[in-house]
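Worked problem 6 (solution included).
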Amino acid sequence: MKHLFSALAALLALTGVSCDPPPGVMVPLPSESERQMSLAQTLVQGGDFRRAIHMYSMVAEEAPETAYGATATHKTALLLCSPRNPFRNDSLAILWFRSTIARSKSPDEQLQAEVSIALLDRLQVRARDARRQREIVDSLQTAVRRQSGTILSQTRRLQDMEREVVSARAALKLLKDVDLNLSRFRQDH
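Solution. The predicted structure is:
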């Protein structure tokens, strides 16, 4: 809300400052699209990206065949993929860049839109690859945890078996000693 008030105050300040045209010269009033573009730019400067995108998209939809419509389309796309925008949406930005290519008469804007689409496509591919790699790493970590659990339980069983072998050897030695004593006793008697 604070950004909206500051944007409105800036707009009022801009319209409040005026130079009187020479007598007899008619100065055309700014069109609705011009006012909306100006307000959108003020919102961008204030960091209110959501409302700025809304204003630019209104101009783009209401005046698609005009220069304002083409520029608003391009600016909407740029704001949608801006790293400063907390509501960033690269998929929507690509759609708006494609509209920019179709609507804009400026070869520079069209080229910028094409380059932006290519970069966003690459970014999406890299993001998909990173997600797949994360999934692979997660799956490997799960397998390692399972295997380490299996190894740990097998180690415990092995230790238990070693203790049983040691106690069986001790019992066997005891039996041998008893057998030797019995054999000596029989020989003596």
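Discussion: The domain at 30-126 is CATH 1.25.40.10 (Serine Threonine Protein Phosphatase 5, Tetratricopeptide repeat).
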